[in-house]
Specification:
The structure holds 2 protein chains of 2 kinds. Chain A is mainly alpha-helical. Chain A contains 14 helices and 2 strands; from the N terminus they run αααββααααααααααα. A two-stranded antiparallel sheet of chain A has the order 1-2. The longest helix of chain B has 28 residues. By secondary structure, chain B is α/β, with parallel strands linked by helices. Chain B folds into 2 domains: 186 residues, D-Maltodextrin-Binding Protein, domain 2 (3-Layer(aba) Sandwich); 193 residues, D-Maltodextrin-Binding Protein, domain 2 (3-Layer(aba) Sandwich). The N terminus of chain B is likely disordered. The chains are: A mainly alpha, B alpha/beta. At the A-B interface, α13 of A face α3 and α15 of B.
Chain lengths: 321, 423
């Protein structure tokens, strides 16, 4: 404030020489602008420190590791330039891994958002037991992912609970986790059932934010349920759709525990998704350099997909034109 | 601006000084360089309270004689993640002084990450280096130097649920069975009772190296003696896998993929497991224990091993080596023998082993352990064990289908692991 007071104390047109003796050190350092800037930085400092320590530094280290070959037992490290990046093209397993990643992410995103929206629409109506069902569908979210997956692992055994149930109605269930197609379906479904509650709650909140008078007006104009849903509901909840799409895609690309516990990436490579492959290469095979290269590839995928969705929001998110 | 620069400089200097001070304090505080305050740490994968108490009591006796060692900690790590955790500790500059090791030993030895023990153990009074069984030390030796003491050398044996065999009307002498007879009896038990026939414990259609307990009886091996060439697609291996595939998909003598059966819970007629698993036996059913049944190649025996070594990256190599020599001397080896089959010939008699085993008789232990060790082979082990295991498993997954092309799948295993063997 002292700087401001001094500045305002000057009389317009007054001779600079008259003020010179009192202002020998030049303009004050702590101007209002600088103080504001400092306060701003102090406010974001804790978050910034976390991002620097746990995101930027590890990413920087991963870039460095990806340029090196590292013997973790002897501690020897040698600079190999872009060899690890060139190895991506020669990795015979990588196409299968990327394929499994695409199928898993696609399956999780479509099912999770579709089912989440369906449940939200159904549970947005007033009927007895609505709260119970909302709690029921949300409750898996708070269960430990490992505990959840372990239980499903038992249920999906050839002689497990699912096939036992199917057997009672005369259906000979498949060996869920031992066949490539059913193993992938199993990990997708267990992931979706566990996490669909989050999307359901977000959609519920969005649905309850749609003004009721819009529905009334549409009905007065003779609009049917389908038209009301596609022309009023969907556009008005599109910001939430964007949010859930981003969260679900990023979450699917990071799904690790389900794969590790349920299938260990098998049978063959059918459920080896990219994040599990990163773990295998870096921590099981001790290929830290190549594992870091794969991790950076995963990071670039996440960033790219998020960026694409963010750009697309102008086209399909209401109020974003 | 000059004040801002001064401020930034002061912050940087303070940070650097603080970090330097912190690093310095860490080094001094842990007593890592102080020979009068040595703190040893040993990673293990057991969490058995009795075993840990025995280790603690041996460590306490050692510290009483060696006051420069202020503490010896036994750090229990989960077995499933043991190799990954140990490797991460080494890579992170936090290597333990001593560590248990299984299939990681080849990588550690090849990387000079272990301290050679032979000279020290031979020079230790009363240690009796020549007492070690040669077949037990082979796995942890290179160029005549022992790098880890094989504290647990446990042969695989065939456990038989004689109650289940009787229930299925199978009158065979467990001591004189071949693999074909085991498969036939197993199929009969499954057919008559719905229980499983024979189970290779811990295989679970994932850990294929456990199948060495079967394929060795067919004269097969995963790779050549020098570890450079894959022999998985050889005719002996084809016979072994044809036997296993038939058992899983034709006769159902072995539970198929995705089906669990625990012998020790009474769910199977036979299981192949290490003798050290006998602690799981209860009085729920009558049982017998025999050496592995002969296959087409005749009699054979397979051992599973665990060793303990001194990490070259540890902070107190000399003190750690001294403690290892004490932990494994004849007196303490005898104590450890109550939990882990020892590698010392002087302790390897049925009667001595039976003194610490409440489940198996001296005769059973003599036949299943002592008589098996001299000619035993170990489970397949090689450098890069996890990568070989994963690549092999991925290729072998195609085997566990009813219409599998056995020779083609075995060939694909070699295609997958040959580049790793050739490194």
């Amino acid at each position: 404030m002292s700087g401001l007071t001094k500045t305002r104390a000057r009389t317009p047109g007054a001779s600079p020489a008259a003020t010179k003796p009192r202002d020998t050190s030049g303009p004050p350092f702590w101007t209002i602008r600088r103080r504001d800037v400092l306060a701003g930085y102090l406010f974001i400092a804790p978050q910034l420190a976390g991002v620097v320590l746990f995101v930027l530094v590890p990413v920087g280290l991963a870039i460095w590791y990806s340029l090196n070959d590292w013997n973790v037992f002897s501690g020897g490290q040698s600079f190999v330039g872009v060899d690890n990046y060139a190895a991506l093209a020669d990795d015979p397993q990588l196409p299968s891994v990327l394929g499994a990643t695409a199928v898993f992410c696609g399956g999780v995103v479509v099912l999770n958002i579709g089912l989440g929206l369906l449940l939200a629409v159904l549970l947005n109506r007033r009927f007895r037991g609505a709260t119970f069902f909302r709690t029921l569908f949300f409750s898996p979210v708070v269960v430990s992912v490992v505990a959840w997956t372990l239980v499903w692992g038992f249920l999906l055994q050839d002689n497990g609970g699912i096939n036992g149930l199917l057997d009672t109605v005369g259906i000979n269930g498949p060996n869920w986790l031992q066949r490539g197609d059913t193993a992938m379906l199993s990990v997708i479904v267990t992931q979706v059932i566990r996490s669909v509650g989050v999307n359901m709650v977000l959609f519920l909140a969005a649905l309850q934010g749609v003004p009721a008078q819009l529905y009334e007006a549409a009905r007065l104009d003779g609009a049917g349920s389908r038209v009301i849903f596609t022309r009023i509901t969907l556009p008005l909840i599109s910001p939430t759709l964007l949010l859930t799409a981003i969260i679900t895609v990023v979450g699917a690309l990071q799904s690790f525990a389900q794969i590790a516990v349920l299938t260990s990436g098998g049978p063959e490579l059918s459920t080896t998704v990219l994040v599990y492959y990163v773990f295998q290469q870096a921590f099981e095979f001790n290929h830290i350099g190549y594992g870091s290269t794969l991790a950076l590839m995963l990071l670039s995928f996440v960033m790219l997909l998020t960026l694409v969705q963010w750009q697309l929001r102008r086209k399909w998110v209401f109020h974003e034109q | 601006m000059s004040r801002a620069r001064k401020l930034a400089g002061a912050v940087a200097l303070t940070t650097a000084l603080a970090l330097t001070a912190a690093c310095g304090a860490s080094g001094d505080g842990s007593g890592t360089t102080d020979a009068t305050n040595v703190k040893l740490r040993m990673t293990v994968w057991t969490s058995n309270q009795d075993q840990l108490e025995l280790f603690d009591s041996i460590a306490a006796a050692y510290r009483a004689k060696n006051p420069e060692v202020s503490s010896i900690t036994f750090e229990s790590l989960p077995f499933e993640d043991y190799n990954t955790t140990l490797t991460t500790q080494i890579a992170g500059g936090n290597a333990p002084d001593l560590a248990w090791m299984g299939d990681l030993s080849k990588d550690l030895i090849a990387s000079d990450a272990l301290v050679g023990l032979t000279d020290h153990l031979k020079a230790t009074d009363g240690w009796q280096y020549d007492d070690l069984e040669a077949s037990a030390t082979k796995e942890f030796s290179q160029d005549g130097t022992l790098y880890a003491y094989p504290f647990s050398t446990s042969p695989f044996a065939l456990y038989v649920n004689t109650d289940l065999l009787a229930k299925a009307g199978q009158r065979i002498d467990p001591k004189n069975m071949t693999w074909d007879q085991v498969a036939a009896a197993g199929a009969a038990v499954h057919s008559a009772t719905g229980k499983a026939g024979f189970v290779v414990r811990d295989f679970d259609y994932k850990s294929w190296n456990m199948l060495a307990t079967v394929w060795t009886g067919f004269g097969a091996a995963a790779w050549s003696q020098d570890g450079k060439t894959c022999t998985f697609d050889g005719p002996e291996m084809q016979k072994a896998f044809t036997f296993l595939h038939d058992a899983a998909f034709k006769t159902q003598a072995m539970p198929g993929p995705g089906t669990t059966a625990d012998f020790f819970a009474g769910d199977a007629a036979f299981t192949v497991a290490q003798v050290s698993r006998s602690s799981l036996l209860t009085d729920k059913f009558k049982y017998a224990l025999t050496p592995l049944p002969p296959g087409p190649a005749g009699k054979y025996s397979v051992i599973g091993q665990a060793g303990v070594g001194v990490l070259a990256a540890g902070k107190h190599k000399t003190q750690a080596t001294n403690f290892l020599a004490y932990l494994t001397n004849p007196t303490n080896s005898a104590k450890l023998a109550q939990f882990f089959p020892p590698p010392r010939k002087s302790l390897l008699t049925g009667e001595k082993l039976a003194a610490n085993n409440t489940v198996l008789t001296a005769t059973q232990l003599q036949e299943a352990v002592v008589d098996q060790l001299p000619n035993a082979v170990t489970l397949p082990n090689h450098t890069s064990p996890a990568e070989i295991a994963q690549k092999g498993k991925t290729a072998l997954d195609a085997m566990w289908k009813a219409d599998a092309d056995i020779p083609a799948v075995l060939k694909s295993v070699c295609t997958a692991i040959d580049p790793i063997l050739a490194k």
